[in-house]
Specification:
alpha/beta; Rossmann fold; 2 domains; 10-stranded mixed sheet; 20% strand; globular
Length: 350
C-alpha cells in the first residue's frame, strides 16, 4: 500500500506545482494611474496581478489590463521607464508587459512639460528635471499603501529611450553640459541636424537649407550657452538600459566606468539621433557597458511598442523599409528583460 500512496502523493504534488506555475505564468498586467501629489508628478504603474483583465482605452491605444487590481507578488523588483520627448506611458506597454510577465513592476513617471499632453519645455530644462522625477516616482511608490509593502526598493532598474535614454545615462553616473551640445552642433550641425534643430525642421537639399542652418546655429548658440555640468544619481538604481539615447552632450569620461550595470541599445537606421554621435559614442567610451543589442534595420521608433498614431513625428519614428517589427520588438524586449533578470534578481531566481 505504501508505494501506490507515494506515487499518488508525488503525482498530486506535481499537479499542485504545475498548477501554481501555470497561474504565475498567466498573471495579468495590473494598471494603477497615480495622480500628481506633493511627492511627485503623475506616475503610471504596471504590475503582476491575478485579477482578470479587461479591455481599456487610453487615448488612441487599447490594452487588456486589470485596473487598480491587487498586486500578485511581494518583494517584486521595480523597473522605472523614462519616456521619450514628447512621450507617454502607453508607447512602452509592450516592454512593460514583457517585464511584468517576468515578475517585475514597471513605473513610468510623467515628465513635466516634456510629455504627450504638454511638450512646452523640452531639451536641457527637461533633462535637468527628469532624473529627479525618476527618484521622486520611486519615493512616491515607497509611500503608496498599495505598493510600499509589495515592492523591493533596494535594487531598482531603469530603462529610458531617446530623451529617456539621456535620463538613463544621467542616472548611470554620466554628466552632461548644454555647452558641450553647443560645440557638437557647431561641428556636426548638418550630420546630426534633428538633434540640434529638433524634430520639426529638416534639411531637404533645397535652397533654404543654408538659411535653416544659419538660424538653427544662432538659436543653439544662445539656447545652449551654459557651461555648467549636470548630473544626478540615486543609490537605489543599480541597473540601467539606455535605448537610442540622446548623448552628444555627455562627458564620455563620466561614463567610462559607470556606477551601475549599464547596457546600450542602438538602432542603426536612426535618423533622429545619429548613432555615430549618440549611442555609438557611449559604447566606444564605456569600458564596462554591455552593447545589449543593435537593431541593424531599426529606426528611432524601433523601441516603441505600440507605435503612436501618425503625426508630426511620424517621419522620424516610423519603421524603415525592411524592419520586421513583429520579430524584432519581442526580441529586443526579451533582451532588455533578460538584462534586468540578470542584474536585479537573486542568483537562484535567474
Amino acid at each position: 500500500m505504501l508505494r501506490p500512496m507515494l506515487r499518488w502523493s508525488a503525482s498530486r504534488l506535481l499537479a499542485v506545482v504545475l498548477t501554481a506555475a501555470a497561474a504565475a505564468a498567466h498573471a495579468a498586467v495590473g494598471l494603477a494611474e497615480l495622480p500628481a501629489n506633493a511627492l511627485s508628478g503623475p506616475v503610471t504603474l504596471f504590475y503582476p496581478t491575478q485579477a482578470a483583465p479587461a479591455s481599456v482605452q487610453r487615448g488612441a491605444f487599447q490594452f487588456d489590463v486589470a485596473v487598480d487590481a491587487t498586486p500578485a507578488a511581494n518583494n517584486a523588483r521595480l523597473v522605472v521607464i523614462s519616456h521619450g520627448s514628447p512621450g507617454s506611458p502607453w508607447v512602452h506597454f509592450d516592454l512593460a508587459r514583457a517585464l511584468v510577465e517576468a515578475g517585475f513592476a514597471v513605473a513610468l513617471p510623467e515628465h513635466q512639460a516634456d510629455n504627450s499632453k504638454d511638450a512646452s519645455d523640452p531639451g536641457p530644462p527637461a533633462w535637468r528635471r527628469r532624473p529627479l522625477e525618476v527618484s521622486r516616482a520611486i519615493d512616491r511608490l515607497a509611500q503608496e499603501p498599495a505598493f510600499a509593502s509589495t515592492l523591493d526598493f533596494a535594487r531598482v532598474g531603469m530603462f529610458g529611450m531617446s530623451a529617456g535614454g539621456h535620463t538613463a545615462l544621467t542616472l548611470a553616473g554620466g554628466r552632461w553640459s548644454p555647452s558641450r551640445l553647443r560645440e557638437h552642433c557647431r561641428l556636426h550641425l548638418a550630420e546630426d541636424f534633428h538633434a540640434c534643430a529638433g524634430p520639426s525642421l529638416a534639411l531637404t537639399g533645397g535652397l533654404l537649407d543654408g538659411l535653416k542652418k544659419l538660424v538653427v546655429g544662432a538659436i543653439d548658440d544662445r539656447k545652449f550657452d551654459d557651461p555648467a555640468w549636470y548630473g544626478h544619481v540615486d543609490g537605489r538604481i543599480v541597473a540601467v538600459v539606455a535605448g537610442v539615447p540622446f548623448a552628444a552632450d555627455f562627458d564620455p569620461d563620466s561614463l567610462r566606468e559607470p556606477r551601475v550595470a549599464l547596457a546600450i541599445v542602438g538602432a542603426r537606421q536612426d535618423r533622429w539621433l545619429v548613432p555615430q554621435f549618440h549611442s555609438d559614442a557611449i559604447v566606444a567610451a564605456c569600458r564596462s557597458c554591455e552593447p545589449l543589442a543593435t537593431l541593424e534595420t531599426g529606426g528611432h521608433g524601433a523601441l516603441l511598442g505600440p507605435l503612436p498614431p501618425a503625426g508630426g513625428l511620424a517621419e522620424l519614428i516610423r519603421d524603415p523599409p525592411g524592419f520586421d517589427r513583429a520579430a524584432e520588438v519581442p526580441r529586443i524586449n526579451a533582451a532588455i528583460t533578460g538584462f534586468f533578470r540578470k542584474t536585479l534578481l537573486p542568483k537562484e531566481r535567474t
